[in-house]
């Protein structure tokens, strides 16, 4: 089942069950997918829809961090609950060890030797881990490995 269809079905289920948090979160994701389709002027592939959902997850993580700094625990709790719902629609995330292994292989494949080669490594690496690992973590691991 396509991600958009899954979201639509889950929205109906949440509406019938009276689960307001799930309903509002799924509606928001469906809305973002539809907005992306409008911007593209066509249907999104499942991969593109997953990228939209991943972007929403990243937004929630950033919001949690900012609200935490501001001492707004009520908003941190709300965003955390939404993030839990959003993560159900993301593909299985890779562990840090799995990412480290792929980073090491890619660095060897590209022949990178210094931090100046970061762009080459990231260009080759991101298609391998797209949607399966957080880009921020990947970038940090590449920087670490290139500096050592």
Q: What's the number of domains?
A: 2
Uncertain parts:
none
Give the topology string: H per helix, E per strand. Answer: HHHHHHH
Could you say which structural class the secondary elements and strand pairing correspond to?
A: mainly alpha
The overall strand count is 0
Main sheet: strands, sense, barrel: none
Question: In the CATH hierarchy, what is the class of the largest domain?
Answer: Mainly Alpha
Q: What would you give as the CATH superfamily of the largest domain?
A: Uncharacterised protein YqeY/AIM41, N-terminal domain
Overall CATH architecture of the largest domain = Orthogonal Bundle
Q: Helical element count?
A: 7
Shape: globular
Helix content: over 70%
Question: Can you walk through the features of this model?
Answer:
The chain has 2 domains: 3-87, Orthogonal Bundle (Hypothetical Protein Yqey, Chain: A, domain1); 96-147, Arc Repressor Mutant, subunit A (Orthogonal Bundle), CATH 1.10.10.410. It has helices spanning 3-17, 20-40, 46-69, 73-87, 96-110, 118-129, 135-147. With 148 residues, it is mostly helical. It contains 7 helices and no strands. The chain starts with a helix and ends with a helix. Helix 1 (3-17) runs antiparallel to helix 2 (20-40), helix 2 crosses helix 3 and helix 2 crosses helix 4.
């Amino acid at each position: 089942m396509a991600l958009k269809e899954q979201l639509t079905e889950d929205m109906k289920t949440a509406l019938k069950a009276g689960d307001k948090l799930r309903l509002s979160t799924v509606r928001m994701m469906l809305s973002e997918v539809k907005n992306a389709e409008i911007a593209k002027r066509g249907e999104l592939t499942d991969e593109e829809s997953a990228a939209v959902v991943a972007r929403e997850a990243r937004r929630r993580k950033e919001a949690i961090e900012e609200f935490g700094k501001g001492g707004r625990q009520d908003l941190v709790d709300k965003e955390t609950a939404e993030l839990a719902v959003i993560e159900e629609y993301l593909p299985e995330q890779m562990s840090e060890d799995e990412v480290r292994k792929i980073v090491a292989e890619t660095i060897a494949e590209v022949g990178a030797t210094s931090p100046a080669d970061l762009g080459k490594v990231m260009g080759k690496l991101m298609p391998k881990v797209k949607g399966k690992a957080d880009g921020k973590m990947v970038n940090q691991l590449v920087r670490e490995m290139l500096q050592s």
